[in-house]
């Protein structure tokens, strides 16, 4: 069963952290269709968080169709995100490798490459959130 | 949704000092609420008025629809209270304390109490005075929970506990809320632990309520605005300015927004709950908020 | 609540029980010894042969004096017992509520499901009941123990009056009530104990020396100077003598003897020459003993009731 953690200083709302952790587990195949998620009570015991936070996270995941709750039995994974597997995005991999190559040729070292990637990634995230 | 706690213009004066002034708030049932404010703000007074061990100078308070002062036989069985520093009969064993609870309460769940204490590893034959601070706090909490209350009030329960004991205490408390749907109001002068645990907030400062509302809503509507140095009056016409600071080149404002911020000269950022609370507490006592519209539904800023 | 009262006060309960047992044994042993001596010295038989109000002045006088001297110290024990009872009353009453304020357990016990009135009622009722039983038992024992002396001295005499009747129980209940009130008012056990002891002194001394001689108007008799020094036959050792002396020329009572006895004069001639008119004696008859006991018990009981009512009022007033 998945075990959650909470980063109090992440700047991300607790319920979103739970949503992200479930999605990440789905992507990596740690959670598969039919697996049971911990009950609200169990999560509260794990990470000492308000029960409504857990309920909100589960509701959001249910809204996205990823999980479903069966009254009296528990909450189960309905759909996975790892349908193709990371391996199948070959085209994306190749263009990423080409970009990295260009970055090294431009004279950036590894740390700078990572910094450039992260800041662009965050800017894109923000744009996505604002337009959403 | 009914209210677990309702006050209307609740006030208390000791001699010539007002400990609480014109406090009007609702606490919806099922919430885990934090009552924050500096020492001497009136938190203990509000709690004592709510459970009926203090008589108001003015105004009224109702617990689950009943008056704690006039109808103690209705409120006492539905109420749980853990006083500051969790007092216990120090020469009683833990088992004695359980017997006390059983004899004095009609709705006492002895099995539940014993199960919880066993899970916490607290021996029943130890005298309460010989337990550690964290264990005493847990015993006081278990005693209050075994009454099967609908509303539980706690006065600074975490103040004298080390971080591990704090976490354990909150875990027991939250587990009880999942199990029974009970409403919780706990006071603290530290906001840190409470952000993840509470979903409702009451800010008390200088004997007056400053802010009451759902924590998520508070987080969504309060923003930090950063922009070039300017006068904030135009902003204050639409939104409520809580705190502002000016440097030579920059103005930073913390606002409770009333709708989106359209002015593109402002950069809009989220604010942590701790910063929101600090901003409200930093305002001088009695200062009028430059507010425009009426209070948001479910959340009000008290003038 | 009964369980809680017992659990909180069980040590005091055992102490009092132990003290009761010890005192009872002591009273039993000394009482038997006194009764035996009363018989064997011939005092009992003598008194039976020569009844009369004035025991000390009669034929049995020397036997009476001998018996009294032998056991006068023992009477002090009864006095100590009476004082201890009051002290126990204070030391049980003062912390009953005050200790809960001091340890802040009021914030625990008043938030269970019973009202404060019920909480206090059960506590007070149980402690009072115990006090009445213990006091009553001791009273019975003391009554039996004191019997020999009751034939020799007035029951109204200040030493015996305090422990030979219901005043013993009433004064203990008053000590408890005042202690309880003081503790509830000041919320500090030790201070309340001292305050109550001072209060008890301030009440009991005036009652004993100011009020008690006057519960009913004292009887005053006069007789001629010729019989100076000789008590009239109507006055006996069962009566409590309040004052004695002479009626002077102005008709006032005086106990002084303002008389220079020259060598040839008899005291009687001297008195007559100085203008004294008669002897006088002021006393309370012994048969007023029970009336006086009930009057004084009512005073103490009344104070106790007031103190208890005031305590309930204080507790209900929501001070935590």
Topology:
The complex is a heterotrimer of chains A (132), B (303) and C (320).
Chain A: H1 14-27, E1 36-37, H2 40-47, H3 51-63, E2 67-70, E3 74-77, H4 90-105, H5 110-131
Antiparallel strand pairs in A: 1-3, 2-3
Helix pairs in contact in A: 1-3
Chain B: E1 3-14, E2 17-28, E3 32-36, H1 43-51, E4 58-63, H2 72-75, E5 79-82, H3 94-104, H4 110-120, H5 133-146, E6 151-154, H6 163-180, E7 183-188, H7 194-197, E8 200-205, E9 208-214, H8 215-221, E10 222-228, H9 233-238, E11 240-246, E12 250-256, E13 267-270, H10 273-282, E14 300-301
Chain C: H1 2-40, H2 43-49, H3 61-102, H4 106-109, H5 116-145, H6 147-150, H7 158-161, H8 167-186, H9 189-211, E1 219-224, E2 240-247, E3 253-254, H10 267-274, E4 278-284, H11 289-316
Antiparallel strand pairs in C: 1-4, 2-3, 2-4
Helix pairs in contact in C: 1-3, 1-5, 3-5, 3-8, 3-9, 5-8, 8-9, 8-11
What does this structure look like?
The complex is a heterotrimer of chains A (132), B (303) and C (320). Chain A is 55% helix and 8% strand. With 132 residues, chain A is mainly alpha-helical. Chain A has a three-stranded antiparallel β-sheet with strand order 1-3-2. The two termini of chain A are 32 Å apart. The relative contact order of chain A is 0.11. With 303 residues, chain B is of the alpha/beta class. In chain B, the strands form three sheets. A seven-stranded mixed β-sheet of chain B has the order 5-6-7-3-8-9-14, with helices on both faces. Chain B has a four-stranded antiparallel β-sheet with strand order 11-12-10-13. In chain B, a hairpin with a 3-residue loop joins strand 11 and strand 12. In chain B, helix 4 runs antiparallel to helix 5 and helix 5 (133-146) packs parallel to helix 6 (163-180). The longest helix of chain B is centred in the middle third of the chain and has 18 residues, at 163-180. Chain C is of the alpha+beta class. The longest helix of chain C has 42 residues, at 61-102. Chain C is elongated, with a radius of gyration of 25 Å. Chain A binds chain B through residues 6, 8, 11, 13-14, 40-41, 44-45, 47-53, and chain B through 32, 167, 170-171, 174-175, 177-179, 195-199, 216, 219, 270, 272.
């Amino acid at each position: 069963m998945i075990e959650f953690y909470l980063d109090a200083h992440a700047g991300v709302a607790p319920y979103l952290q739970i949503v992200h952790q479930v999605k990440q587990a789905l992507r990596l195949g740690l959670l598969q269709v039919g697996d049971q998620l911990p009950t609200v009570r169990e999560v509260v015991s794990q990470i000492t968080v308000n029960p409504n936070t857990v309920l909100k996270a589960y509701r959001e995941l249910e809204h996205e169709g990823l999980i479903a709750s069966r009254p009296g039995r528990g909450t189960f994974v309905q759909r996975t995100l790892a349908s193709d597997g990371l391996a199948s995005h070959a085209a994306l991999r190749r263009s990423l490798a080409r970009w990295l190559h260009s970055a090294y040729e431009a004279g950036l070292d590894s740390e700078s490459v990572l910094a450039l990637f992260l800041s662009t990634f965050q800017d894109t995230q923000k744009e996505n959130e604002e337009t959403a | 949704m009914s209210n677990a706690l309702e006050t209307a213009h609740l006030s208390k004066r000791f001699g010539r000092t007002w400990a609480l002034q014109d406090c009007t708030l609702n606490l919806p049932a099922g919430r885990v609420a934090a009552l924050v404010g500096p020492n001497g703000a009136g938190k203990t007074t509000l709690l004592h008025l709510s459970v009926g061990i203090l008589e108001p100078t003015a105004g009224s308070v109702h617990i689950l629809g009943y008056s704690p002062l006039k109808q103690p036989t209705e409120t006492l069985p539905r109420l749980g209270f853990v006083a500051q520093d969790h007092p216990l009969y120090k020469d009683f064993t833990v088992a004695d304390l359980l017997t006390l609870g059983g004899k004095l309460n009609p709705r006492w769940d002895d099995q539940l109490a014993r199960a919880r204490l066993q899970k916490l590893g607290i021996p029943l034959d130890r005298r309460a005075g010989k337990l550690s601070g964290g264990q005493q706090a847990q015993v006081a909490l278990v005693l209050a929970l075994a009454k099967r209350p609908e509303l539980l009030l706690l006065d600074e329960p975490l103040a004298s506990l080390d971080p591990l004991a704090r976490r354990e205490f909150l875990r027991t408390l939250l587990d009880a809320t999942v199990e029974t749907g009970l409403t919780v109001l706990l006071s603290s002068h530290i906001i840190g632990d409470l952000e993840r645990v509470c979903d409702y907030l009451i800010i008390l400062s200088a004997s007056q309520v400053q802010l009451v509302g759902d924590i998520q809503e508070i987080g969504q509507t309060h923003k930090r605005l950063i922009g070039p140095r300017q006068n904030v009056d135009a902003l204050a016409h639409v939104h409520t300015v809580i705190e502002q600071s000016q440097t030579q080149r920059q103005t930073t404002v913390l606002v409770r927004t009333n709708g989106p911020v359209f002015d593109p000269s402002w950069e809009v950022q989220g604010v942590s709950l701790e910063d929101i609370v600090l901003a409200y507490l930093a305002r001088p006592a009695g200062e009028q908020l430059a507010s425009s519209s009426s209070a948001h539904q479910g959340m009000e800023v008290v003038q | 609540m009964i369980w809680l009262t017992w659990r909180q006060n069980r040590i005091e309960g055992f102490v009092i029980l132990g003290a009761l047992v010890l005192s009872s044994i002591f009273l039993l042993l000394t009482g038997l010894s006194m009764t035996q001596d009363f018989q064997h010295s011939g005092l009992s038989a003598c008194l039976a042969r020569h009844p009369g109000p004035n025991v000390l002045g009669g034929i049995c006088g020397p036997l009476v004096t001998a018996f009294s001297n032998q056991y006068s110290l023992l009477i002090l024990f009864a006095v100590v017992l009476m004082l201890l009872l009051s002290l126990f009353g204070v030391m049980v009453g003062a912390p009953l509520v005050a200790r809960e304020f001091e340890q802040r357990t009021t914030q625990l016990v008043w938030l269970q499901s019973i009202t404060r009135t019920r909480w206090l009622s059960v506590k007070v009722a149980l402690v009072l009941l115990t006090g009445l039983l213990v006091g009553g038992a001791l009273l019975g024992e003391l009554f039996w123990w004191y019997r020999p002396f009751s034939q020799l001295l007035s029951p109204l005499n200040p030493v015996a009056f305090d422990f030979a009747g219901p005043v013993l129980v009433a004064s203990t209940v008053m000590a408890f009530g005042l202690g309880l009130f003081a503790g509830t008012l000041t919320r500090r056990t030790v201070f309340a104990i001292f305050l109550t002891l001072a209060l008890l002194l301030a009440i009991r001394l005036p009652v004993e020396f100011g009020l008690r001689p006057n519960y009913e108007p004292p009887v005053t008799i006069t007789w001629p100077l010729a019989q100076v020094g000789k008590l009239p036959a109507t006055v006996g050792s069962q009566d409590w003598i309040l004052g004695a002396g002479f009626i002077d020329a102005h008709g006032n009572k005086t106990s002084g003897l303002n008389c220079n006895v020259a060598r040839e004069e008899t005291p009687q001639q001297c008195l007559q020459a100085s203008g004294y008119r008669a002897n006088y004696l002021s006393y309370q008859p012994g048969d007023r003993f029970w009336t006086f006991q009930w009057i004084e018990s009512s005073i103490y009981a009344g104070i106790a009731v007031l103190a208890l009512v005031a305590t309930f009022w204080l507790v209900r007033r929501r001070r935590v």
